[in-house]
Amino acid sequence: MINANIIASISEKTLWDIAIMERNRAEQESRELSDRSYVGSEGTNVFFLGSKNSGKSSLIMRFLDRDENPKPTVALEYLFGRRSRGANTIKDVTHIWELGGGTFLTKLIDTVITLRTI
Hints:
By secondary structure, this protein is α+β, with helices and mostly antiparallel strands. The chain is 36% helix and 20% strand.
């Protein structure tokens, strides 16, 4: 879509100049979108912990839109989900960690929660 600045300067520019300006604007928008997408490209970490049979795995399966029956969690489990914001964009990634066994395996939390992931 041609913005107001281009319309205001039509009488001063040739058609070729307007096409070059529009291409440059589109490239700039593409770079800005790419830069914004790159910021979150490493993904988001989500950590679930709770009592045995509290529904952690069921909640995760619903979040990921999976129809599978959840299996009992053994120690620390990892899943991931990807979704794109639109066509031709980098996908958002969510890293999902689930700690089973209640407080018995809490030392495994150090594997997931680090200075880099906070």
